[in-house]
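REQUEST
  id: r-88c1
  op: predict_structure
  target: Glutamine amidotransferase domain-containing protein
  payload:
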Amino acid sequence: MTGTILFDPMIPWPILIGVAVLSVAGVVLALWRGLSGWALRGLAALVLLAALSGPVYQIEDRAPLTDIVVMLEDESASQGLSDRNQQTAEAAETLAAAIERRDNTELRRITVPDGDGDTGTQMMQALADVLAEEPRARVAGILALTDGRTHDIDRAPGLPAPMHVLLTGRADDWDRRLIVRNAPAFAIIDEPITLTVRVEDSGAVPLVSPLATLSISVDGAEAQTVDVPIGQDFELPVTLPHGGRNVIQFSVPLADGELTDRNNSALIQMNGVRDRLRVLLVSGEPHPGGRTWRNLLKSDSSVDLVHFTILRPPEKQDGVPVDELSLIAFPTRELFLEKIDDFDLIIFDRYKRRGILPAIYLDNVTNYVADGGAVLVAAGPDFATADSIYRSPLAPILPAEPTARVIEDRYLPQVTDLGERHPVTTDLDSADVWGSWLRQVDVEPRSGHTVMTGIDDRPLLVLDRVGEGRVALLASDHAWLWSRGYEGGGPQLELLRRLAHWMMKEPELEEEALFAETKGQTMTIIRRTLSEEIGPVTVARPDGEILDLGLTEVAPGRFETTYYGPEVGLYRLTEGSREAVVGLGPAAPREFEQTIASAELFEPLIQPLRGGVFRIEDGIPSVRSVREGRPAAGRGWLGLTPRGAYETRDVTQSALLPGWLVLLLASALLVGGWLREGQR
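RESPONSE
  id: r-88c1
  status: 200
  body:
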């Protein structure tokens, strides 16, 4: 029970103050005039003013509430180093027992695990959550058992009570860390890119060598080593060997006595891209389809196109003097002997033998394909004649032989069953909405894969691999009808784009491929194949464990499965003769960027309310009560601030001056003053 005098004025306070001023003025006037009853008049005015102020005696029935102590226990990955988890557990139990022995005190124990993804320790978010649930007026203290490495300190809430940090770790801890800076997501194939690498020691570093051995491995291949200085940035040139994803692993060996090797390696995943794709387009004669090829290739900003159209063949005799012709001479020797290897793709569009390209030049094209080049033949009616490009040294690499028949008839191109599985033709629009083509050169396939057919299921598009290179034959020159919207058109742009990029060996269009798409530590393993059945994928984990995973066909030619990698690192995938490597997790886990225990981040939170920092290895501090505003920590002790919070159960109010008493007193004083003045 507690009693309090309250005032509940009957009139507003400004009017009450005005009345008081007038009363004082009246008493002063009476005193100045020498009236003997001025004191009684003043007392009467005081009684009336007291009555108007409404004094009330309030009695509250209060129930005291317990003080709350919040204990944050860091269970993030960095706490698993050395014996930090054991230190935390022992300190938490000791402090919990000490707090439970205190009267009128409750303990809230909050565990702080790793944040989602690679967000690190989110201790401030956990503290904000618990303070939002508890009445801040009851919080007597906050204890944080941690290594001090929280990653959301900028989201720290305002604290209602002193905070104390009990620091895990050892004073003689030291660690070595590998840092890879300025690693881009993309890089040009076969061109060196400079990465900045730094090996950094922190903590109580012993006397060690000023150099560290850095190992570099690309896609899990044999590592190369180089000595780098410790504590200095080192520029390292790296060259990507192939297009698509390149997984580069950097690592330094574990040094004697260092805290952990979890931050001694870094995984960088960069996509290799070509600087420019150089295409040579040779049109045997002007025709509507020539502009289709040109527009397609020129629309791609990554393609450098060299296009020649033969407008005046050698056999043409029109009587025009040569010195009056404005045509550009076809630089055959330069293109097909000296610079042929500079091109990624050569397209022969309705080209036929006219003596412009000697047999030795075409034989050089054959060698170019065997060494990794690509040739696309878009066949017109001349492909079926005696002047066909097939009747040349190119014949051994072409996947189909003409039958000397050209079919002039309306038909709808169709994707074959094999074409449904091939990345060049899979997922194209449904064939029943395509426009018709009107010409097809009849060919007999000799090798490769027929992915599209035309009239009577005759081969229309045949793809093949020759040596290290690729060859494609399109047995029609009417693809341009789709671009003109004839009978509704068709997916001409997408088909020809995929075809050209498949021939230029774009990784996403490989028909036989094993790769993985990652998100955090989860990977989706994808096997693309022309076969209808595949075996399981063998996964080799960073710790050496090997397991087999079955895949499910999710689309024609595409098999998938999902796997969660339990640890960060390099995973090797194998299915049949196909191999791939993939890195899971960040380049360097955030929890291990800084591993030496330190309370530096907490200083701005601790100082305003005069909390303290204690090393657990030096002993567990005792718990005391301190008044608010006084130092809350000292040598060997930490303080909690009792809050004195309570719950009001009942309130009773009674007037101090009843109306009848006020009337009686005021009347008696006024009458007394009048009588005294009347006796004078």
